Amino acid sequence: MIEYYTIKHKGGEEEYNDRLFMNYSSTVTLMILYSSKSRKFYGPHSEAIEAKIRECTGKEFEEVIGETEKMVPDDCDYMLININDDRIKVDRHGRVYAYIVKNGELKLLPNGTFSLEDEDRIVCGTYSFFDRLSDPAILADALTSISSEEWMDNLICRISEQTMLAADNLTAVTMIVRSDD
After folding, report:
1. Confidence (pLDDT) at 85
2. What is the pLDDT of residues 73-117, one digit of tens each?
3. Region 160-178: what's the mean pLDDT?
4. The pLDDT of residue 38 is above 60
5. Structural domains in the chain, sorted by start
6. Which residues, at least 6 apart from 58, have a Cβ–Cβ distance to it below 8 Å?
7. What is the spatial distance between Cα 143 and Cα 121, in angstroms, rounded to a whole number?
8. What pLDDT score was predicted for residue 13?
9. Fewer Cβ neighbours under 10 Å: the N or C end of the chain?
10. What Cα–Cα distance (Å) separates residue 43 from each residue in 47, 71, 113?
11. By C-alpha distance, which of 171, 164, 166, 132 is closest to 13?
């Protein structure tokens, strides 16, 4: 089972411009779009991608990549992730990141497939989310939090101490792999 918690916050911006799409079924598929360059990402693009993510259950990850990458505007950064209980697949483009805490270490996840174990912790988000977080802070909060919600709350408190949450849009997801036992 994958426990998760999301944050979507407009910060000091007039509106929320990033996009987060999730499909939580036997696996978790999520896509984060970071529109830092193209402050407008609305309507048909967003609706079409949301539909593709909703319909992706049972499809091969490479097929989902092929279908969604054609829909993303050239000036948007994005990341597509697929997770089940024992592996994570990442397809990242631009300034959207995923980190994993495994065996007490924090590592940036590049594109590819990686194994997962019970209690592995994953945080993914946009550049503006990670901009004010240090690697030691992310690791410390991951190791001391008992839930994905608590981990996110701790990270948000760190960001808030610096910006009062009045900077750019914040978009992120924290996840913890939980055994079914």
Report:
1. 78
2. 777 899 999 998 799 999 999 999 999 999 999 999 999 999 999
3. 84
4. no
5. 2-177 (3.60.40.10)
6. none
7. 9
8. 73
9. C
10. 6, 12, 32
11. 166
Tokens describing residue 135:
């690697």
> Residues 100, 106: contact at Cβ < 8 Å?
yes
Q: Long-range contacts made by residues 135-143, C-beta under 8 angstroms, separation at least 24?
A: 135/106, 138/99, 138/101, 138/106, 139/101, 139/104, 139/105, 139/106, 142/101, 142/106, 143/101, 143/104
Please state the length of the chain: 181
Neighbour-count burial for 116-146, b at 16+ CB within 10 Å, e otherwise:
beeebbbbbbbebbbebbeeeebbebbeebe
Q: Quick check: pTM over 0.70?
A: yes
Q: What is the pLDDT of residues 136-150, one digit of tens each?
A: 999 999 999 999 999
How far apart are alpha carbons 21 and 46 in whole angstroms? 9
Residue type, 15: E
